[in-house]
Each structure stands twice: as C-alpha cells, then as structure tokens.
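Quick start: what a row looks like.
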Amino acid sequence: MITQVEAFSFSCCDKLMFIQLRENLITKARYEATDGLVELQTLQLSNNVFESFPFPTENETTFFVKSLNLESNNILKLNVAVPAKFPTCAHLDLSGNYLSALDDYGLHGFPHLKTLRAPRNNISFVGKSLFGDKPHGLQALVLYENDIREIPSMLLTRLPNLTTLSLAKNNISNIHNFAFEHNSYLKYINLDENNIHTCSPLALVGLDNLDTLRISFNKLSLLPIDFFQVNHDFGLYLRGNNWGCDCSMKFLYHWFQKTIFFHYPVDCDTPLELKGKNLLELELKDFCTDGDFSTQSMATTTVLNNDITRQFVLQTKS
C-alpha cells in the first residue's frame, strides 16, 4: 500500500495523462509530485486517507490537471489560507468526505472549474465567496446529502452559468423569493428529500431555461397560485408530499393537464376521503365543489429584494 506521494514521483513520465492511485493509504502528497506533468488529464486519489486538501505548501503552487478526484477520503476542510492554483482543472470531486463547510475562498484557486461534486459530507455552510469575489463559470454544483439549511442564494448570484444544481437530502425548509434570480441558464434543480414546507410565490423568478424541478418527498401541502412565474413548460416532480386536495390545488391540477412532461402521482393527504388518491386522476368536482380561483382577478404585489423594488402581477382568490 502506498502511504505518500513523494516529490518528483513522476518526473520520468512527462507525457503522463492519467494517474490512478485510488484505494491506498495515502495521507500526504508533496506539491512537487506532479511537477512537469503539463498534459495530465486525471489525477485519481479517491479512497485514501487524506485529512486535508492534498499538496500542502507554504507558497502558492500551480498544478496542471483537468480532473481531480478526492472522493471517499477524510478531508475535514479546504485550504483557505494558501490555496494552490489549479488553472486547468474543470472537474473536482470531494464526495464522501467530512467537510462541514465550503468556506469563502476555499476554491479560489479553481478559476475554470465546471463541475463541483461534494455530496455525502457534513456541509452546513456554503460561502458566497467560495470561488472568490468575482462571478465564476461553474456549470454544475452537486451537494446532495449534506446538512444545508437554506438554498445558498448568495453563492448562486456569482454563478451565472450554472445549469445543474443538486441539493437533495439536505435540511432546506423553504424555497424563498428570488432564490435563483441570477441563474437564467439553470435547467435542472433537485430539492428532493429535504424539509421543505413552504415555497414562496416568486421563488422561480429568473429561471428562463428551467427544464426540471424536483421537490418530491418534502413536507409541502400546497403551492402558492403565483408559483409558476416561468413562461414555459417544465418537468415538475411533487410526489411524496402532504398535499391538501381542495380548491387551492385547482391551478396545479390544470397545469398538469397541459404539461407535455411525464409526471408522477400527486397523492392527496387531506381531506380524509381523498387520502392516498392521485389528484391527477380525479375529476375537478371531486376536490373542488365550492370556492374558486379566478384567472381574471389580478392584483399587483410589490416585493423589496436587494434594495430594488419589483412589481409582479399575481393571481388572487375571487
């Protein structure tokens, strides 16, 4: 079993493109270990016993690698004080470690990262300046199975090119207004298996290219009638919630009738006589016999967000 990677370990192989060192007992890798490997594509260091980010150094050092895999180690934190530079790295996998935070500037040395995977950690904090103080070109952020309590909107404001966001199996309780306002390219959002019990009316504002929204297996009983502030069809997954099937669900019922996307059952939790039945298989009269929502009655709401006053037209109950 290999226990450490010494300096200049690969100096005789300057054309090396793939290094496979997974499933050893490596605790330390010297920063000079990959010196001279300017064509390195993948460095595979998963299933070792690193307790901190590899390649410790007292000075900023540059590493050239496109994919860095550190899955299933014992990494506790990122190196914020003296971050190494990975100018060519596009994919970073930190899955299955013991990270409790993605601290500000922790990944400042990854200016061209496209995919960050850090599921199955203990992350409860995600810093706004994780990648520094400027907008970053990250496209996929995968953080499922952590302890995140709210959608990290401050970080998301600096990720305008994001297309994929997975926050499933966390402890998020609310999708707040303007949560994704700066993420117009975001196509896939997975919020399954959280603790979500409310969705704010303007939560989806700005999602011009949304293709899939997953909020299954949460604690939702209704969605606000103004929730669909998106001007196009998209896949919506809602199963495993506590839906109250009454007239407040009429707009959602009609929305599912029009969508071209496949949909799973939306099972009623209340009232008792409808418990366990799929809302989408019911007749409108089965769950809405009195009261109604008029599409003609409109009101204007003013929302203050980030010191900017915004007006949106919302449907109101007649």
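That is the whole record. DSSP finds three helices and 20 strands in the chain. The two ends are 72 Å apart (CA to CA).
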